[in-house]
Amino acid sequence: MDRRDFFRATARVTSVAAALPLGGTARAAATPAQPPDGAALGWLEGAPAFSAGTTFGVPWPRGAVRKDQPFVVDGASGDVPAQSWPLAYWPDGSLKWTAHALGASVRPGAALRVRPGAPRARAQQAVTVRRAAGGFVAGTGVVECSVPSRGPVLVTAIRRAGRDIARDVRLVALRDDQPEGSAHRSEFVSEVEQVTLEQEGPVRSVIRLEGRHRDKTRAWLPFTVRLYLYAGAESIRIMHTFVFDGDERQDFIRGIGLTFDVPLRDALHDRHVRFAGEDGGLWAEGVRNLTGLRRDPGADVRRAQLAGERCPPVADKVAPLLHLVPAWGDVSLAQLSADSFRIRKRTKAGCGWVDSAWGRRAPGTGYVGGVSGGMAFGLRDFWQRHPTQLDIRDAHTDAARATVWMWSPDAPAMDLRFYHDGMGMDTHAEELQGLEITYEDYEKGFGTPVGVARSSEITLWAFEATPPRARLVEIAQAVQTPPQLVPAPAHILATQVFGTLWSLPDRSTPARAAIEDQLDARFDFYRKEVEQRRWYGFWDYGDIRHTYDADRHDWRYDVGGFAWDNSELSPDLWLWYSFLRTGRADIFRMGEAMVRHTSEVDTYHLGRFAGLGSRHNVQHWGCSAKQVRISTAVYRRFYYYLTGDERTGDIMREVLDADRRLDDVDPVRKLANQPPKGPYPARISFGTDWASLVANWLTEWERTGSARYRDKIVTGMRDIAAMPHGFFNGDRMGYEPDTGRLHNMIGNDVKALHLNAVFGAVEIFDELIRLTGDTAFERAWLDYCELFNAPVDEQRRRLGAPHGATHALYVGHSRLTAYAAWKRKDPRLAQRAWQEFAGEGRQRPFRTVRVAGPDVLNPVDEVPWVSTNETAQWGLAAIQNLALIGAALPRT
């Protein structure tokens, strides 16, 4: 069964749908029932050539699976070795999400299913971890590594069959004090301060290392490294994270990488260097090449060397002269842009480099070793996160040194300084003028990178001999696109783990088909824009731009707050709900890259703004609006639950108490006509602030059962519902971080803001209503949903006055009207919601226009009026309206 058949076949789960007066497939999830045979799984990109081990998440309906339930993963001929653990719980204590790990021995082509049951299968090559003097010794059954508890080395040795294949795995960071380079370059190495066995099991174990980079005088750049070991794997997966904590005016990172030594025992002509290229290509040479010589060493010798096999005896006339054939000890592949890499080599340090090959996009995998063993190494998103580099040094000696550079030392230094000097914005009034003209929310000292982070995935493979060329190509593919199992969309929908606001694609009428087609077209446009506009680079990859400049035929990359998007108006949610309903691999991968970017680069992990994120700006950290609406877990939890990714789990936990920053960093300090803070520690809005905090707390509540964060949620729900006009009093509220109490600050006045519902509030409130059953909160929210887009006369009649919000996001807010229509079973509201979605007949067609010639640098396909705000909100409205009130949509 191929991937498309898998997703079509599992769509039968939605047959539990019950007709609503308004129709809509969201009703299908209203009475969830656990599929009796568990959850079918599919490989995201189809069955891979092989898997080195994988982890995935599976959701379960409320009340269906007890918290201590074991699980079985069934294959074609019975259960396969698997390891399972809980990720989240429903309020009744039943399992909501579970994570499952499979080792490297599972056949990728086999049909797989997770079901409750007692597992019987055991891994033949199980993961083992034992505590040794000063650390851990962990193995996959194939390779073994020794991890010390402290010191400069992450892993002292990686062994296979009792032989050291790599030694002294460590981190390295290079620093200059000037961006253009200087004579004061410093080299820092890792200093591990703490090691934790985070997970121990027969199929998967995880070891976490924490520390900082250090030289003789200073420690900085805190790091976290996780080592993942899967049963039967020849490899160790490494997740590396560092946080910038320097002074961006004098700390310029010249390189940051992971380095290790590879012992070499073979003759120079039996040592091999490999770099993967594009489209399955491979650059493969010997350290001492025996091809192309004036005297032929023998055809069998040449063939063996090219294949990476042990060479037979060299011809008698050549053997005495081998020492005169150069040995190329140093080889380097540098990817300094998204469109070009260079391979060059030299015989040794102090000698000149020789260019060997050029290409466009390297997948970031290399190898050094010989017929007696060697190491392959790969960096995920290698060309996408340029400038990157793979280095091999001293391969002509007894030990080569390989370095995986996450920032290439051949590139310009990492320059994190703010992009302008204030431009005369010396007073608060001048800062507001800057906001008025360029949308630039500037405030001196706020555009700091101190506290931003980046995570990278590296995989190390230990081999007993140089692997065949085809095998290295397979490894390169697996490094770039790790095989990922996912449950079918229909199964996820039936469990209601992400609420009731989405449905499976349905093209049964012309109108439905037209909306589905435009949903596809909008995603496809942004996917192609990433490539067309080269939205790549170490700090940039994963983000998209905010607003287009039709005059320049480019995005407003250099205009204040119009440049990088930084999750503004929830493109993250648009992508994840799009994936949930379609199961499309390309949507998942774009959402994955966005999670990695926005949770790391757009969020502060230490310092003054820890737990907060930065609003959209020319630089990801440039805006002075440091807000919880960017750092919120509402954008990360999809990826976390689908993959069980520990780093994402860390980040969601980091933001739990971000509400304590809202006193020092008042989110409305620059807005006019705000009520005074009064006796409360902070003032916040229900949408851009409280709903984002609630997403953090809800995620922790379901992950751990925390009563503390549950109570903060329930307290706030109660306080909003008790206000005279509910959410229409919630645009600015007094807030107490200790208790979670919210206070009405505007009395009987009525006020709303067009931004309050567009940062995850709609989606999180739907989940809260279902989880808590709080009818007063539900009633207040439904009133808000019904009245936000309502005619002014109706607002005046129901509220006593218009709420005053603009219609800037009128189409996006149609989903609020749809939600009220669905909940209140009101056909009139459903009809109004579709009229709002149509934009009162003024929507422009989403079609690209080709622009070429001297008007542009390169030919482009553009949508002249496009903005990510509009795209994300239109996409969410389309998805939710179809789910909630699809039956009320006219056929054409």
TrEMBL record:
UniProt domain PcRGLX/YetA-like N-terminal RIFT barrel: residue ranges: 39-116
UniProt-listed InterPro entries: PcRGLX/YetA-like, PcRGLX/YetA_2nd, PcRGLX/YetA_3rd, PcRGLX_1st
Cell membrane recorded as keyword: no
Domain PcRGLX/YetA-like C-terminal alpha/alpha toroid: 482-889
Domain PcRGLX/YetA-like central beta-sandwich intervals: 127-476
Keywords, in A-Z order: Signal
Pfam families: PcRGLX_1st, PcRGLX_2nd, PcRGLX_3rd
Signal peptide residues on this chain, from the entry's feature table: 1-28
Signal is among the record's keywords: yes
PANTHER family in alphabetical order: CONCANAVALIN A-LIKE LECTIN/GLUCANASE, TAT PATHWAY SIGNAL SEQUENCE DOMAIN PROTEIN
Protein name: Tat pathway signal sequence domain protein
